[in-house]
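User: Round two. Same drill as before: sequence, then structure, for each protein.

Assistant: Same drill it is. First protein:
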Amino acid sequence: MSNRREFITLLGGAAVWPLAASAQQTGTPVVGFLNARSPEDTMHLVAAFRRGLGEGDFVEGQNVIIEYRWALGQYDRLAGMATELAHRPVMLLATAGGEPAALAAKAATSTIPIVFVIGGDPVKQGLAASLNLPGGNSTGVSILTTTLEPKRLGLLQELVPGAATIGILLNTSLPTYDSQLRDVQDAARALPSQVVVLPANTDHEIEAAFETVIQRRIPALMVAAAPFFDTRRDKLVALAARHAVPTMYQFREFVAAGGLVSYGIDVADAYRQVGHYAARILRGEKPADLPVMQPTKFELVINLKTAKTLGLTVPDKLLALADEVIE
C-alpha cells in the first residue's frame, strides 16, 4: 500500500511544486491534468495524452510540465483540485474522466483554456455554446459513451436472449445520470426484458448491487458508463465472474481484464486527441475556435473464453459484428 500511495502522491502534485516554481523562472508552460479516475486504471490513457502532446512537439520534462491530480472516482474532490490548479501558473487545464472533471474545471476558471474528454453532450452541460464553435474557454472530445446505453442494452439482450430481466448498474452521482436512466428506460420498452436499476456510488453499494442480482436471480447485467466504475474495473469484473453474471461494459479494457462484452469507442485515441488540442492551444490557438470532436467508429469486443465459462453461446450475428474477439 505504501508504494501505491507514493505513486499517487508523485502524480498527484506534491512532487511537482519545484517544477512549477522552475517553470515560472524558465517560461516552460505548465499543463494541469485533472482526472476523475485513478492512475492505475488510466496510465495507458495518460500515455496516449502525452503522445498527442508529443505529436504537437510538446514533450513532458523537456518543453512542457504536467501537474497531475486524481480524484480516484470521488467526484467531490475535483472542485478543490481544479481550484488549486487554476491558482497555479498553469497555461491550460486538461480534464479527463468525464463530466465531473470538466465541470469542476469550468467552475474554477473562465479564462484558463480547458480541453476536456467527456461522455455526453457538452452543450447540454454548459461546456460549449455549440459543437462547431464552442465559444468559451473550453473544448475537447465528447466520446458519447453515456449516450450508448440503449445500444449496449440491445446487444446484451441479443447475447442473453432468454433474460427476462436485466440489471442496470448506474452511478447516480454522475451529472449524466438522469439522461442515462431515461435512455435505458425508453430502450427497455422495445425489448422483451424488464430492467432493474441498481444505483451504486460506493464500493459497498457495488457489492450490494451484486447481492441483489443474485437474490433476485437477475440473469444479465449492464454496467452503465461512469468514471467511478472505471476506477473499479477489476472489482466489477471479479464480481461478475464470481457470481457468473453475463455483464456488458463501456470500454474494451473491461473485456481484456476478463469481462464478457463491451461496446464503445477507442478511448485511448480520444485522450490522444486531447493532447493534440492541448498542443495547439499552447501554440496560441483559442478553445473557442476549436470544434468539439466526436468519434465516428464504435467497437464491439467479446471475450469468448468468458462466454464459454458462463456457458453462453455467442450468436453468429454478434460474432460477425464484433470488431475484436478475445479467445
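Second protein:
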Amino acid sequence: MASTLSRQLVAVLACCCTLAGCATGSNPGDPYEGMNRKVYAFNEGVDKAVLKPVAKGYVAVVPAIARRGVTNFFNNLGMVVTTFNDALQLKGKKVPVDIMRFSSNVVFGLGGLIDVATELRIENRNEDFGQTLGYWGVGSGPYLVLPLLGPSSIRDGSGLAVDFLVSPFFYVNDGEGTVRWTLFALDVIDTRANLLQAESFLDTASIDRYAFLRDSYLQRRQYLVYDGNPPRASQEGGQKSLKELEEEDMREEDPVPLRAAPRMKR
C-alpha cells in the first residue's frame, strides 16, 4: 500500500509541476481542458475495462449487508483524516465529536463495520487537506483530472499528499504487503460499486459528461471548503477565507457596547 501511495503521489505532484507549460483552454476555471479531456478519456477507458465490471460483480456476489459493513469500515477510517484536518482548521468543537464518532464505531460497532455513531446521532463529517488549505485562504487553482484519481485541482491534488500520510492505510505494515493491497483494492471496488446507481443518470442524460462532472466537482468543493456558507467578496475583490468569515461573524455577534449619551451643557 505504501508503494502504491508513493507512486500516486509522484503522479499527482508531477501533474501539478508541469502545468505551467500547458496551453490554456476556453473555460476560465479549466484552462487545461485539452489535457484534462485526454486524461478523462483514459480514466473512462480503465473504468469501463476493469473497475466497472469488477464493481458489478462485487454487487452481484456480496450481500448488501456485507457491502454496507465494508463501506462503514472505510468511512470510519476516514475519520482519522477528518480529525486531523479539523485540528488544523482550529475547529476545537468538532475534534472531540470526530474522536467520539470514530471510537464509538470501533468499540461498539465491531471495529467500524456497524455505524453505531449515526444511530447515536453523532455528526458525520468529511474534511481533507484541500479543504484545510481553502479554509486558510488558498485558492483552488485550475481544475485538473488526475490519472486514475479523477477530478481535482492544483490545491486539492497537492493536498492528497498530506492525506495519504495521515491515513491509517499508510501505516499498515505486513511485510509482503498482502493486507495493504487487499484493503486498498477492496476500498476502490466498494467506492466504485457505490457509484453505480448514481452513474445511471449520466448514462441516460444527453449531456457532456466531462463538463457536468467538472462543474459538479468544483461546486461541491466550494460548498465543502466553506462548510455550506457561500463566500463573500472582500474589499479587494477576492474571496475571503473561511477563517476570515468566521472572525467577522464573531465580531458581529459581539457588538460594541453602547456608550452613554453626552450631557447637554446648560
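Residues 2-20+34-194+212-231 form one domain.

User: Perfect.
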